[in-house]
């Protein structure tokens, strides 16, 4: 015959408390698991959402490219640039800051009158990654209002200041019906490289569908441009404003942008 010891009430209480405390971590794990399950779709959605990029270049099967100039300071060489492009019968795209428009409205008009595109580059060259969507919209519209008042045309393209952007910047800009534009060939003319270095950087990197970055008021850009233009034209390139280089239509429907920033048509 086996005898079973009945635990004293005090000992039974200790055992009960131990089981109770051991049950708490398990309950917490269950709660965490439940929270994860209920929120999992949002995590999956965020991780699988395709990131939108600005256009760095365009898929083209023939030799065409676009030259672009950021205008945020100085206008001492604006007319010189216009004269150079007139000589070669080339039209380009200028991305101008609203405050630059305020200082040099005559330069904005001269660019537009010469047939060049004048597009937005923000109102005061702020860091757009730090702005809310509403602030981005207000900033871009302020700049575009100034440009439209002088040129009679409202900008349809935008280049983020400093080339900085994140997902909310790009989706906000594109949500305005404006296409964000970067570049795939950087002249680095703002570093005051000599004309030969600027020329070599551009001519060694350009390809069909390229967008080249220059700056107005850069020290040696006017000196480098004739050699660059003669090289491009001699190689059979058609140089067009960016709005003529990029593909028409709606993002995701008519075109997409690959991981390198190349705009590509959506295949039927």
From TrEMBL:
Pfam families xrefs: Polysacc_deac_1 (PF01522)
Positions of the NodB homology domain: 63-240
GO cellular component term, pick one: membrane
UniProt xrefs under CDD domains: CE4_NodB_like_6s_7s
Signal peptide positions on this chain: none
GO MF: hydrolase activity, acting on carbon-nitrogen (but not peptide) bonds
InterPro entries, A to Z: Glyco_hydro/deAcase_b/a-brl, NODB_dom, Polysacc_deacetylase_ArnD
PROSITE patterns reported for this sequence: NODB (PS51677)
Source organism, top-level taxon: Bacteria
Gene Ontology biological process terms in this record: carbohydrate metabolic process
PANTHER family in UniProt: GLYCOSYL TRANSFERASE-RELATED (PTHR10587), POLYSACCHARIDE DEACETYLASE PDAB-RELATED (PTHR10587:SF128)
The name this protein goes by in its record: Polysaccharide deacetylase family protein
């Amino acid at each position: 015959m086996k005898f079973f010891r009945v635990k004293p009430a005090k000992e039974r209480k200790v055992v009960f408390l131990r089981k109770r405390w051991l049950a708490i971590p398990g309950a917490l794990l269950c709660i965490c698991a439940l929270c994860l399950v209920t929120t999992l779709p949002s995590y999956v959605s965020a991780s699988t959402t395709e990131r939108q990029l600005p256009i760095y270049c365009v898929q083209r099967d023939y030799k065409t490219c676009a030259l672009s100039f950021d205008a945020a300071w100085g206008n001492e060489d604006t007319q010189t640039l216009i004269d150079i492009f007139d000589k070669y019968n080339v039209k380009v795209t200028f991305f101008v800051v609203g405050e630059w428009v305020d200082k040099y409205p005559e330069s904005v008009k001269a660019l537009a009158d010469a047939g060049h595109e004048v597009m937005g580059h923000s109102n005061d060259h702020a860091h757009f990654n730090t702005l809310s969507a509403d602030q981005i919209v207000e900033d871009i519209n302020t700049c575009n209002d100034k440009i439209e008042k002088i040129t009679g045309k409202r900008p349809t393209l935008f280049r983020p200041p400093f080339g900085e952007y994140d997902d909310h910047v790009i989706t906000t800009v594109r949500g305005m019906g404006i296409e964000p534009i970067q570049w795939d060939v950087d002249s680095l003319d703002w570093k005051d490289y000599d004309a030969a270095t600027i020329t070599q950087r551009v001519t060694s990197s350009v390809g069909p569908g390229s967008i080249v970055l220059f700056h107005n008021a850069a020290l040696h850009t006017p000196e480098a441009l004739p050699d660059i233009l003669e090289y491009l034209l001699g190689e059979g390139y058609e140089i067009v404003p960016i709005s003529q280089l990029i593909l028409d239509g709606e993002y995701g429907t008519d075109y997409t942008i690959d991981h390198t920033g190349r705009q590509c048509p959506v295949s039927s």
